[in-house]
Amino acid sequence: MVVRAPREYAGEIEQIVRERGTSSYYLSGGNYIDLLDPDEYYTVSQVRRVRRQRINDNLLGDHRFCPTVRRTDTLREFETADLPGRCRQVVAGYSPEILKRALKYLYTKETRSSFEIEHVHPTSNRTERFVALLQLAEQEDFCRKPQLIEVQNLIVDARFRDADYRKSQNYVGETVAWQRERIHFVCPKPEGLADLMDGLTAAHERMNTGRLLARKRASHFDFLSSEEIATLEQTVRSAYGSETPENE
Known about the structure:
Elements: H1 10-20, H2 24-29, E1 33-34, E2 48-50, E3 55-57, H3 73-80, H4 83-91, H5 96-117, H6 124-136, H7 145-155, E4 171-177, E5 180-186, H8 190-207, H9 210-218, H10 226-240
Parallel strand pairs: 1-3
Antiparallel strand pairs: 2-3, 4-5
């Protein structure tokens, strides 16, 4: 298969090739170069060396599943905004019991919103199961096939439980008229799903190593906006009632 780059990039690609060199010595004895520039993209630190092309494969995944995230100015601002520190400052003035009440409220609110999107009216028991799974999300790693299937079976109605990935084609869309659907997204074919999910799991494990994991853990709340932090504080205050924390 021949992959052709868009014409607008042809000049840039030619310039890069000329600057890097094309001699047999360079390709066989030169230094390895990173596939993606870590200053421009989020990459992994534990690279895979590809001897034939003499590159350091620092992609977040492989050919089965590989997200690419550019280091935009917005994301760079999030990296340096110290939003985790602001979150810690908000919750530091409240007791663990009050925080637990606030989190339970948020989990329940998120659960109801998720079901409303699907126009589902769950029973109280099903809602409690969903909330319990949300609470476990930060404690356990569910990115494994058995765990994913188990979680799915705990969430869905008993009629739709299964022992494997889906075997039928599905899509995301909306009904616009009788027997007419507006399709927003066609999901992967069932026959390619197992390979895709194996790739997702591999990418998950690959991103859980080295500096990327450290950044992920250190920046756990990095993608909370200022408005969401304010909402968090308001939720905690609402759960606390009209009283004021002792150390505020």
